[in-house]
């Protein structure tokens, strides 16, 4: 028999005898109904005196690290300051709390390890008291709770490409390795329990315990480009603590001139600014094909019937902003040899592609203000429709099964509701 235990974290201002109550109110509640047993679904509600901005449960200790952060008077923006609270649901007691400026610092919990990062580096906090155990001069860019390893570059050395690994228990350096950070980090992919694939000026396999692995170096950015800003993507300090974070670059550096990594049983496929390549899992290059010089931007790749397709999206990042970069095109390559089968320049001017769908040997591309369908055989334009973005807003992405709409008094995914139409999020 399985037991479902729910925890609801809420916030409110509670008043007793005219005074504000700054503790936690714990109470049982019903959040739904078990239609099979005809009984209510029980939950425990914890009501905090400030807005719960985020929280992290520790399954080992049963404790909750809770981020409290109120909104401004208009309720439009979160305030810069708040509190971090270590809360024990069992005893309904606060172990400790600390004031925090969310623009300058953040705290995240990884099982029984609590880490605080600010402009000076990263510190491990004592779970029982909130006091520092150790501090290192690195804002850890990737943290793996299973191995207890965090990796990052030293803050006091902007030139060095020495990537350090730290034991999260003691803060000691366990290994180091040279990996370029000039154009930032694009992604991290977990290959197995011990090895990750880092996308940073190429591909790098890293054994988290020992630091060993292979390197495939290629061009993933540019230092000499000016372009049109599409979107400001500035985030708060320590986006790194969402599991991994980008290594940020200078404002004038154009980055993210890469594709996603496609993987099958034997190979990795990856496109950069200069070429598209196929590698085995030992890092050996099986084939590499040059891409049009100074025409390639951020891209998306996928495989259909042993053909590797590539969509040049016309996008890049510059500092903390999304920009237009080069013109979109569609290309296709033989999956086994890398021989180019198709190269179709589909736009006369710089224009960004934000999403795509495929089917019936056709590809549908979503631009900011229009939708267009092309042949996957020769890149011919089959259909095009401009969208009145003045009334509906700019197009962002195609709707997926994660989005529900109310239709016929039932919440349904757009695809199940009407398979003959395309639904777009604006």
Describe the structure.
The protein is 2% helix and 50% strand. The protein is mainly beta. It has a 4-stranded antiparallel sheet, with no helix packed on it. 29% of the residues are buried. It has 2 helices and 41 strands.
What does the secondary structure layout of this molecule look like, with pairings?
Elements: E1 6-11, E2 14-16, E3 19-21, E4 25-34, E5 39-48, E6 52-57, E7 64-68, E8 81-88, E9 93-101, E10 105-110, E11 113-118, E12 121-125, E13 132-136, E14 142-144, E15 149-152, E16 162-167, E17 173-178, E18 187-190, E19 195-199, E20 202-207, E21 215-217, E22 229-232, E23 254-255, E24 262-263, E25 267-271, E26 275-280, E27 285-290, E28 299-304, E29 307-312, E30 315-318, E31 321-324, E32 329-334, E33 340-345, E34 353-359, E35 362-367, E36 370-375, E37 381-386, H1 389-392, E38 397-398, E39 405-407, E40 410-412, H2 414-417, E41 424-425
Parallel strand pairs: 1-5
Antiparallel strand pairs: 2-3, 4-5, 6-7, 7-8, 8-9, 10-11, 11-12, 12-13, 14-15, 15-16, 16-17, 18-19, 19-20, 20-21, 22-31, 23-30, 24-25, 25-26, 26-27, 28-29, 29-32, 30-31, 32-33, 34-35, 35-36, 36-37, 38-41, 39-40
